[in-house]
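step: validate -> pass
step: tokenize input -> pass
step: predict -> running
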Amino acid sequence: MLRTAIVTGANRGIGREIVRQLAGLGGYRVILTSRDEVKGRQALAALRQEMDGQTDAPILYHQLDVTQPESIQRLVDFVKDNYGFADVLINNAAILIDPYGRILEKPLEIYRATLETNTYSPLAMCQAFIPLMLEHNYGRVVNVSSGAGQIENMVNDMPAYRLSKLALNGLTLMLADGLKGTNVLVNAVCPGWVRTEMTTPDAPRSVQEGAEGIVWLATLPDGGPSGGFFRDKGLIMSNILNQPD
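step: predict -> pass
step: emit ->
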């Protein structure tokens, strides 16, 4: 039986690569989502062509603007009507709009917009899909975070982005604590500094390397860790690891 996986912000970069790797494993029906439908469907067509003959797992597309409740609800309805529930949720969609900012210089609108996409939207997705996971006592939630969200790294640059990822790490811990004793595991992950449109072309890591640890968390076995913050499948020790009861 195929498991259903949702990947947000998946028309390019790490998100697209997550879809490719998950589908390549087999056993997963992967829903590629993006805010821009044209770009999303182009990514879907390219992936299907690229993976032709490599996997029998279906890759599907659904439009999703993670900042719009109506858009999230349309995706929930689609998943419920067709598959009952989602097994895997990967909150990958994010923005970085203050790459050279300083905390006293950037207007509050920058902070609000960044938190809306990078923190509140993952929470909204979790509120929408985790209850369905609990009905079937299976779920894997991966929040794509950043080393910039470590408390030790709260230096005075990219302030909105850093705060949003710090809050996302806190959200991960709270969700994991609330889900103790269930088979719904929630973890955060830092993919490292990856060559994407969001970063720089001279970043040291490929999208393949960045996606690998995310896919690992998305496919954890029962009894796996929950509440952890990981990089390259290793725990970043400044965060708490909660094991299911």
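step: describe -> The radius of gyration is 17 Å.
step: cleanup -> pass
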